[in-house]
Amino acid sequence: MVTRHQFLTMLHDLLKPRVYLEVGVQYGLSLDLAVHSEVAIGIDPQPLTQAKNNQILFPMTSNEYWESQSGGTIDLAFIDGSHLWEDALEDFLNIVRFCGEFSVVVFDDVLPYNEAIAAREPQPGDWTGDVWYAMVLLEPLLQERGLKTARVNTFPTGSFVVWDFASGDGAWLDRHLRTNPPPSGVPADVLYRFNALEAEDVVNRIKEDLCVSQ
Fold it and tell me: Which residue range forms the structural domain that includes residue 50?
């Protein structure tokens, strides 16, 4: 099983995104993977690293960042922020406004391996929070619109990928998305990764859908 960073590296090498953006920088380990990008944007209210090379750090919340943005295309995005489903969902809705047809969006921490690490309160170690619920809400709606999605079997806490965007306009999501509080307990298909694919298979699917046609 590959790690989240190995999976991200595979995507960077495949897509060579001109603009990379991530929500949740911490020590900058994933931001450092954007070696092919002209600019790597990191958003974190308290980053524990300094910007280097092609990086631009925005020490603010993602909501504060999005309020100041009006244009441009995000080629690859990584959502690894507060670990609460509503914040991850809001970040996705904002990112979609800047996605083109070749953009890819990755969520981290969507496949907790036990109930304890899926709590909304921070836990020591591999705390995922309830980001899994944002994935469960989005999957059917995105697939209905013809976008491609995949749960990815990455170590330690899984990934969720969205690609094949037909348009950068995310207004249809806001109109159709209906949210309720998550159910008590993590569903078995999430907890035991029943529908998760291996990273190499997902990268190959993305390559077939996005890169072959370019």
Answer: 4-211
